[in-house]
Design a protein that fits this description.
This protein is mostly helical. The protein has a 3-stranded antiparallel beta sheet with strand order 1-3-2, with no helix packed on it. A hairpin with a 2-residue loop joins strand 2 and strand 3. Helix 15 packs antiparallel against helix 16, helix 26 packs parallel to helix 28 and helix 27 packs antiparallel against helix 28.
Amino acid sequence: MLARPTRTQALITVGILFSLAFLIFGRSIEYPFVRFDDGLLIYDNPAIRGINFHTLRAAFSTYDPELYIPLTLLSYQIDFLIGGIKPAIYHLQNILWHAANGVLLTWLLYALFLMRDQSQIINRKSQIVSLFLGAIFISHPLNVEAVAWASARKDLLSTFCAFASILSYLQWRSSNAKRFFYGSLVLFTLGLLSKVTILTLPVLLLIVDVWSKRRIDKAMFLEKIPFSALSGVFAVIAIIGKAGQIGSVTPMETILVASKATIFTLQKFFVPVGLSVVYPFNEVISISDPRFLIPLLGLLGLIGLLCFLFFAQRKETHCQCVSTPILALGFFLIALSPSLLNFAKGGTVYITSDRYAYFAQVGVLLGLGMGVIHFLRRDVPTVRLYRKRLPVIAGAVILLILATLSIRQTKTWASSEALFAHAANVSPNAHIAHTNLGNVLTERKAEGNLAEAIIHYEEALQIAQSLPYNMGPTDPVTSKILSNLGSALRQSGNVSEAVRRYEEAIEKNPQNPYAFLGLGIIAATEGRMGEAETRYQKTLEVAPKFSPAYLNLGALFSATGRYEEALASFDEGIVIDPFAPQAHFNRGVVLQKLNRLAEARNAYEYAVELAPSFVAARINLGILEANRGKREEAIQQFLEVLRYDPENTKARDALRQLQ
């Protein structure tokens, strides 16, 4: 039977690992969402707003926009039912999944250690080493990204299902009960529905078979056919979502980047410093470049050395089993390999991401665990003297260092600004970090923030314009940065420079809706309503589902007294983005002008529900409540305004009159 901990051991393991997870990551529950896919997947995503036929259909019939992750979206739907769009519940669920993964990993390692060496001597040692490695997994800084980033839920879910699938498979092998085989298949399917990168599981199961010294025969491969069929289906689904990226790189580039990413990941596992949300490489990838040639040769050398040692050991001992280091390294490489194809985005090469190692590091932990176990069981006098004290002291120091580094790394996810400021500090050539910093600062609209945002946009522009893979007739990356720069310049009052940047953005990408929208806003601000309307209509021609164009077009219609057209425009925008509070507020303003007060009140209420700090919506709602005699409701709205804006004179005057 598959090795199982006793009830007491299980409770102790769960208590230790869950406590450790909350000790390290508990602070992240208070963190907001970040401007890095969280809007796309969560707070601006209609597909997670509840669980019904429409949201389930959207989850199971769309990409994100590149990955097929319906089960991950379903988990967000559950979060929404519990806490709406409050970040705390999303972060809490991430921590719980991470802790659960640590528990499953501990059990899996314990079972594999006993299968590898079935002597009774190491049973107790295997329990302790497995728990120690589970604690390393929980506290390793390389896993911070997967836990602290709400959008990384897919890595947590797919890893949980992969661990559970392997355990169920091992249970089937030890008991021969078919229900565990089918359970393993179901769990593998659920994992693929969470994130497709665990599709190499059939090969990993073969490694597990060899690890447990199972005789290699035809049956070993035949029983993996259902798993392989599932992998094939989901591989096709993944290729459809990633077709543009995969087709943009050559096989040699893939080999070179994959080698560098593998060595880079191993380096960061053993020396987890200098971690970042992005690791860009903005130069030409070439085999003559030592930065790629050395990792390639190093990886090939490592594999060659292990193979040599294996054959030397086999010749000396006549053992038919594959050596532990080869199997551990094989597990790591095969588990990591699907993520290594995902490196070319928007003209920039991203070597890897920390979360890619989340599942793959099991291979490293397997190798380390067996090494520690063999060290502990050696009957050498010097080892015997210290083997009780030295491992305990060393283990405590390692965990303390890892936990400290993880707590520090978690703080970089405390806000969008903290995240991208850290990324820009680690990788100054990361244009995406400078662009996102500019976006965060532009949202604040203060003069000093706009000036700083412009500096970051210009830095991002300089980096993007030098990218070697942006040599085509269009350059969407540079175009997007230019339009963002134009927006910051427009809001800072430098209209002529903003127009120039918008026009450059259109030259770089004639399909950039933000540039046309920005020119329309400038025209409307200067009173050229006809030109503004033309610009907005052009925006909708290049991007028919671009909701900000409908919002601005509706505002133009409202300003010129075309109220019915304004309502129609707002309604179109709300269909595309039903969770934009400004659209509902603007709709309420028009309805109020048309004296459709009940509808206006509903629009303001929904705007406030979407954005509780929306002061203008609360003021208008308070006025409507007061006008219809709902004094207490009106007072409540104005009190809420003062909670968000204590110096608001309109709210203060209204309260004096009502009280």
